[in-house]
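REQUEST
  id: r-88c1
  op: predict_structure
  target: Glycerate kinase
  payload:
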Amino acid sequence: MKILICPDSFKDALPAAAAAQAIAVGARRAGDDIEALECPLADGGEGSLDALLAATGAERRSAEVQDALGRLRRADWGWHPESRTAYVELAEASGLQALAPEERSALHSTTFGVGELIREALDAGAKRLLLTLGGSATNDGGTGMLAALGARLRDGQGRDLTPGGAALAELAVLDLDGLDPRLTGLQVEAAVDVDNPLLGERGASAVFGPQKGATPADVTRLDAALARFADVSAATLGEDHSELPGAGAAGGMGFAARAFLGAELRPGIELVMGQAGVETLLADAELVITGEGQLDGQSLAGKTPVGVARLAHRHGVPVVVLAGRLAPGWQAAFDEGITAAFALADGPMALDEALARCAELLAERSESLVRLWRVASRP
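RESPONSE
  id: r-88c1
  status: 200
  body:
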């Protein structure tokens, strides 16, 4: 029996590769005839770089860049010299996970470090860039990235703006003359895990600002500042991308990637699955096991289990989800090709215990699942 195992990470517990290994261990305990192929995935958020490196065999490189608060940190990126493709994960430089809760500052956090990583890729000779946009601590519309790549943002007095989204309220001039000329020869794909526009009640500030430290008053301020940025950008470029689905990803980085880098915005899980060759792997699979920390109604927006299920459904392969938690609305996943879903906890359990036992619980659930599936699959 051939089983394709392709989970995302289990947040605060296991990276995707470790989760896939645990599921495979349990599946193989169910019988000597079990062939379990591990293919860890991600949907564009934290951990996407690891999934892309595992899928492509690209080199892991690192550089010293600014974090979301302007402090120095080491950030990894990927380089595939044969195809001259660079892999940059926004969360490596400007991720929310790197900040303590009390450090989160949606008003002033910056994507400057992401631009520094892109510059590293250009220095290496990149002709193609895969940029993953999940897990950001920022709400600056990607202006920090632009500044790192040579753009200048000035107020009405000709002064350079300070970093962060709040300062964009004073934006008067967007000077692109110094933008790195090598960007014109760079093919960019940006992986997004949401379809939100830049502005409004479904926009970057309103939906994602609060988790980055924004108060209700901050959200109003940031939305107005991003609207100013969008207006000045439209006047400078001659086109407006603020309503584009995905423009609100990563605090507006989706907008900047499309408007200034010419990026194609793609659902993150589709991009990662394409790099991993999941469609080819499905040809021989009899069952798919996927999973993540929580399956809920929001998973339909482009999270890994639903993305896997949609592709597997087209090939007639059943998909089972193992999730740390089944939250309200998870049943909608049945309509997207998921055959069944199971929570990991084997009884009342504190969160700390569940996180510590995640690998053990995944292996146990996987073994039981595959044992049942083998019996049910008999002629």
